[in-house]
Design brief:
Blueprint lengths: L2 E7 L7 H13 L5 E7 L17 H17 L5 E6 L3 H5 L1 H10 L4 E5 L4 H7 L1 H9 L3 E4 L2 H9 L5 E2 L20 E5 L8 H14 L4 E5 L5 H10 L5 E5 L3 H10 L2 E4 L8 H9 L3 E4 L15 E3 L4 H13 L1 H18 L2 H16 L1
Parallel strand pairs: 1-2, 1-3, 3-4, 4-5, 5-6, 7-8, 7-10, 8-9, 10-11, 11-12
Helix pairs in contact: 8-12, 11-13
């Protein structure tokens, strides 16, 4: 019999890398001969008139949480392993922790799949979270060696299983002539510091007036960032909002350089997607990014918050087409060797089988 695994995480109604990786994992495991997988969203859509309650601030959190917790009590007893995706802070308390407690209640092993670059601050300043992470899940899995080291500093053992990208559904092309057409694909939230990308683009546009910047994603800072564009007198910046996977894939193909400037990060799927699509990457060195980007080999990396260095790295690519090809080729090879489903599948199946015995 196949091991029955319940993946608990955000649906694609919530913009972000967790939802993308959860859906990719579900699709990959659908054909597994060892695992039978199902999904429970932490943000369920209520039926009929009740859905109106989810449009009301604060009420939305209460009714969605009640629906989610009730679903846990129904679904968890019918599976063998619970795999809970996790962010940090309140999100951890509201979503993965109830799933792991339900797993323990019904005698099922639970996996905490912690994915936030804010782990160090979360573990340091939220003692309840720290104690529960150390004691409730049977296994802690993180996407990178960076978070393995963060958890180890707090005496918590973690196993690394990386994010992956579907190479067959992402358009790859070798960019032998790199144009000043840039892409930013991060949520418009303070920790991703898209403002740094805009400041860097101002410097680039001083040299290349026809340069373009496509900004995919949405978030609380959108109005502020759009106003910042006006204040910087930027031209050619397009805020595209939330895009589906097909639209994102087409956008990677339209652009030639990927810009990424977070203050806090772990293992951004967007960098792996840029690798897969042949875009040379220029990024800050936040969190776990140095575990996937090696400066000068498969990308260019600068200090967090340094918009001038980010701009100069981007200009370096525009001035040195040979470097662009070399970085992009090495990044694509890195993706093929480490961040594809055939590599990741074995690790996840092994976790599920080991815990279910």
């Amino acid at each position: 019999m196949r091991v029955r695994v319940l993946i608990v995480g955000p649906s694609l109604d919530i913009l972000g890398g967790q939802a993308v990786q959860a859906q990719r994992l579900l699709m990959g495991l659908a054909s597994s001969q060892k695992v039978e997988v199902s999904f429970l969203p932490v943000n369920p859509r209520l039926p009929g008139p009740l859905r109106l309650l989810q449009s009301i601030k604060f009420v939305r959190t209460v009714v969605t949480s009640i629906a989610y917790w009730a679903s846990l009590l129904w679904r968890v007893p019918r599976v063998d392993v619970v795999h809970a995706f996790s962010a940090s802070y309140c999100s951890y308390l509201l979503a993965p922790l109830p799933a792991l407690l339900a797993a323990r209640l019904f005698g099922r092993p639970g996996i905490l799949n912690y994915r936030s670059g804010e782990a160090a601050d979360h573990l340091m300043n939220w003692p309840l979270s720290r104690r529960s992470i150390a004691s409730v899940p049977n296994l802690v899995v993180v996407p990178s060696g960076y978070l393995v080291s963060v958890f180890a500093a707090f005496g918590i053992a973690a196993q690394a299983i990386p994010n992956f990208v579907p190479l067959d559904s992402l358009p790859y092309r070798q960019r032998t002539r790199v144009r000043p057409v840039f892409l930013s694909n991060r949520n418009l939230e303070p920790l991703y510091n898209v403002a740094c990308t805009l400041r860097a683009f101002r410097i680039v546009q001083n040299r290349f007036p026809d340069a373009q910047l496509m900004v995919a994603g949405d978030g609380s800072q959108r109005d502020e960032l759009e106003a910042m564009c006006q204040g910087l007198c930027l031209q050619g910046v397009s805020f595209l909002g939330k895009l589906n996977s097909a639209e994102i894939a087409a956008l990677y193909d339209r652009c030639d350089i990927y810009l990424n400037s977070p203050n806090i990060d772990n293992m951004p799927t967007s960098i792996l997607e840029a690798f897969a699509c042949g875009l040379p990457v220029v990024t800050t060195n936040a969190g776990g990014i140095p575990y996937i980007v090696e400066d000068g080999r498969n990308g260019l990396m600068v200090a967090v918050g340094d918009s001038e260095a980010l701009a100069h790295a981007a200009l370096r690519l525009l001035d040195d087409q040979t470097l662009c090809v070399q970085l992009a080729d090495d990044a694509r090879a890195e993706c093929e060797s480490r961040f594809v489903w055939s590599k990741v599948k074995i690790a996840w199946e092994d976790c599920y089988l080991r815990l279910s015995r």
